[in-house]
Amino acid sequence: MEYEDGYLQAQRPKYDCLLFDLDDTLYPLSSGIASACGKNIKDYMVEKLGIAEGKITALGDLLYKNYGTTMAGLRAIGYGFDYDEYHSFVHGRLPYENLKPDPVLRHLLMTLPIRKIIFTNADKAHALKCLSKLGLEDCFEGIICFETLNPTHKCTVSDDEDDMEFVGSRADDSAANNRNPKIFDIVGHFAEPSPSTELPKTPIICKPSEAAIERALKMADINPQRTLFFDDSVRNIQAGKRVGLHTVLVGKSQRVKGADYALESIHNIKEALPELWEAEIKSEVGYSGNVAVQASVTA
After folding, report:
1. Would you say residue 290 lies in a domain?
2. Does residue 8 register a pLDDT over 60?
3. What integer pLDDT is reported at residue 280 of this predicted model?
């Protein structure tokens, strides 16, 4: 009986779920989407929030570094705005025409016999637009996005089984519409640190917060120990490792601390991780009398 249990365990696929970041992971940085998004964020800060243009770069860098996203940082230091308006401004003018159908990636994803889920800090509209342009809209079980991590009210599961979202609701922007008259000077805080002053917390949940990753895992009923997490951000990868995920850094040619695998492109997934496809084949092969030991494949 013990031998049989060991055999069954050896035959069990290593992973139950693949968790994919979207931007600069399922399509390359060279698309120009990221740079255009960065420009739109700066324009929003100047045009909508009245921040002096000369302060944008230093402020944006500190917000991103300390809060995960500029949006989360802006809310933390006291700026109030409508979340939907922000996303519409930042994503509404992106060059989505630069994204083309990717039949190679589509084939790879469709032939994977494992759960596949999108996990992005972006809003649902942006995620759906990108997936549609790439021709990947039906390749994933669901999308975990800004709205699902930051709901306004009790989350409800969609009645539409084909809906790409796990839970649906708009992010709570009622408090955001009441701008705090006192803006925390984060640039001054780091220029002249004071032990008695702490950084304000953000009401927004997003990567690379471990709380955001843990919420996503719970939301989609994912076992981190049996999940591969693909992301282009080193910070997100390291946070994923801390909560128990197996990780794949996409878009970098060198392994970094924390990543189990490194792929130059998402298209290299089958070369680096052939066992993802072999799992289905092994389940159909009868007992041969020997228990094979799978070696770890790295790229």
Report:
1. no
2. no
3. 55
CA distance from start to end of the chain:
37
pLDDT at 288: 30
The C-alpha atoms of residue 31 and residue 251 are separated, in whole angstroms, by: 13
Q: What is the pLDDT of residue 164?
A: 44
- CA–CA separation, 157 vs 151, rounded Å? 12
Q: Is 43 exposed, middle or buried (0-12, 13-18, 19+ CB in 10 A)?
A: middle
Residue at 175 is within a domain: no
Number of domains in the chain: 1
For range 76-98, the mean pLDDT: 97
Amino acid (1-letter code) at residue 259: A
Burial (CB count within 10 angstroms: exposed 0-12, middle 13-18, buried 19+), residue 56: middle
Q: What is the pLDDT of residue 92?
A: 94
Residues in the chain: 299
What CATH number should be reported for the domain holding residue 191? Answer: 3.40.50.1000
Instruction: Tell me which residue range forms the domain holding 83.
Output: 17-152+182-279
The answer as to whether 164 is a domain residue is: no
Any domain includes 298: no
CB atoms within 10 A of CB 76: 19
